[in-house]
Design goal:
5 helices; alpha+beta
């Protein structure tokens, strides 16, 4: 006589306590920015420009000419917070009860594994959100991530940058593997003479545009390019003294920005604030996590940045 098991539910092994988390990317833009620590709310970037004119100097008296000009651009940080309250009792009816420490007191505490996993995930989420806001941030946005602070796209567009789309590529055409090499070369050609000789030039683009650029080079059979330099979405633009960097914060925007690294600033109060997550047991027996920090960005000289925007 055969075994009859049709009335039993199929077995699912739920004994594993290993929590598998979703893939997240590391902040790509932030390491390229010039940091300013100790910003409580708004700090001025002190700008200085000297203008001087050569003149014939065979006599004893020179005529005063030229100027020394002081100006400012303000870097404002936003105070940003993450908070949630979690009822550990919700874990009891499910396999997740195994994540609680033994005994009644365990229901009021998160074990080391669960607490560390949630902390690590929150930190990665904060890094992702900052990466997006660095570029696409807009305080008037209805998006919770983008409205944290004004990002570079809004800041540079509101100022006067160098037009990197001199051929007027339209939104209908977009950035393609056919035109992306020309776009990068066109932006490099638009640089001022002073910028061309700067040693720390970086051209930021979305990782989607970077992928198209690499594909275009491969299609053009430009294998003399050192492919070992194509790692981590960074590579040198041939003969241009420029490092092309693909960043997630610009993906999907079809925008590119070229300038000196020292021209892109990030401001914060304490360097490690965004890396701190605090846990607290409330009187309601809930667990609360809190993360608070300040962050903002600014550029010193928008006129020294080449900006590519589709028309």
């Amino acid at each position: 006589m055969g075994l009859v098991v049709s009335s039993l539910t199929d077995y699912v092994n739920q004994q594993s306590k290993e929590l598998l988390v979703a893939l997240a990317y590391e902040g790509k833009t932030s390491p390229y920015l010039t940091p300013i620590a100790g910003v409580k709310k708004t700090e001025a970037l002190q700008l200085f420009a000297l203008t001087a004119y050569p003149q014939e100097a065979s006599g004893c008296d020179l005529v005063a000419s030229g100027s020394a000009t002081f100006t400012q651009r303000e870097l404002t940080v936003s105070k940003i917070g993450y908070r949630d309250e979690l009822c550990m009792d919700a874990l009891l009816p499910k396999w997740t009860q195994m994540l609680l420490a033994p005994g009644a007191a365990g229901e009021d505490e998160i074990t080391a594994q669960l607490g560390q996993t949630m902390t690590d995930e929150l930190k990665k989420l904060i890094v992702e959100n900052i990466e997006v806001a660095i570029w696409q941030g807009d305080l008037t946005s209805g998006d919770a991530v983008k409205k944290m602070f004004d990002g570079y796209i809004k800041i540079i567009t509101a100022a006067t940058a160098i037009n990197g789309n001199s051929t007027n590529i339209t939104t209908g055409t977009g950035i393609t593997t056919t035109n992306v090499i020309g776009i990068v070369n066109g932006m490099c050609a638009a640089r001022t003479e002073e910028l061309k000789h700067a040693s720390d030039q970086v051209l930021f683009c979305g990782t989607d545009t970077f992928d198209k650029y690499v594909q275009a080079l491969e299609t053009a059979n430009l294998y003399h390019v050192d492919q070992t330099k194509w790692v981590n979405y960074e590579m040198g633009v041939i003969g241009k003294n420029v490092t092309l960097v693909g960043v997630p914060g610009l993906s999907g925007t079809s925008k590119l920005y070229l300038g000196q690294k020292r021209n892109f600033f990030k401001g914060f109060d304490l360097l490690d604030d965004s890396d701190k997550v605090e846990w607290k047991i409330l009187e309601s027996d809930k667990m609360r996590y809190t993360a608070k920090f300040k962050f903002g960005v600014q550029v010193a000289y928008p006129s020294e940045i080449v900006e590519f925007i589709l028309v």
